[in-house]
Amino acid sequence: MFKEFRAFIARGNVLDLAVAVIIGAAFGKIVTSLTEDVLMPVIGKLFGGLDFSSYFIKLGPVPANLANSTDYEALKKAGVPLLGYGAFITQAVNFVIVAFIIFMLVRTINRASALFEREAARLRHEQEQAVPPPPEPVEIGLLRQILDELKKRPNA
C-alpha cells in the first residue's frame, strides 16, 4: 500500500494539482480584494451605504456596549446572531467574478486549441501533398505494356 501511495504522489498530475491549488488560492485572494475593496464599495454606494458588509439583520439580543453598532465583525465576535446578507452578496459576487474569469480562460484555451488543431491538420495535409507517390513496381509496368500490345491486336 505504501508503494502504491508513493507512486500516486510521484505522478505528474498530482504535482500539477498541487500547483493549481496554490495558484488558485493566490488568485482567490486577488478576486476577494477586487470584490471587497473595489466593487462592493461602489455597489454599496449605489444602495446608500459605504460598507456593503454592514448590511445584516440582528436576530438576537445585542450587548449594551454594542447597542447602536453597525460593525458586522464586532457584533459577530460578541456572539450576536446575525443574518449577514451583505457578506453573502459579497461572496456571491466574488463567485460570479471567479466563474466568469474561469469561463473566459477555458473559452480562450478551447479556441486556441481548435486553432492549433486546424493548423496541424493543414500542415499534415501539405506534407501529404508534398510527398510524391512511390514509384510503380517494374512488374506492373511490364504488365501494362503487355496489356497495351494485346489491345492493339485485332480480335481473332
Automatic annotation (TrEMBL):
Origin: domain of life: Bacteria
Predominant location: membrane
GO molecular function: mechanosensitive monoatomic ion channel activity
Listed InterPro entries: Mechanosensitive_channel_CS (IPR019823), MS_channel (IPR001185), MSC/AndL (IPR037673), MscL_channel (IPR036019)
Cited function: Channel that opens in response to stretch forces in the membrane lipid bilayer. May participate in the regulation of osmotic pressure changes within the cell.
Family: Belongs to the MscL family.
Subunit: Homopentamer.
PANTHER family associated with the record: LARGE-CONDUCTANCE MECHANOSENSITIVE CHANNEL (PTHR30266:SF2), MECHANOSENSITIVE CHANNEL MSCL (PTHR30266)
HAMAP family in the cross-refs: MscL
Name of the protein: Large-conductance mechanosensitive channel
Originating species: Sphingomonas gellani
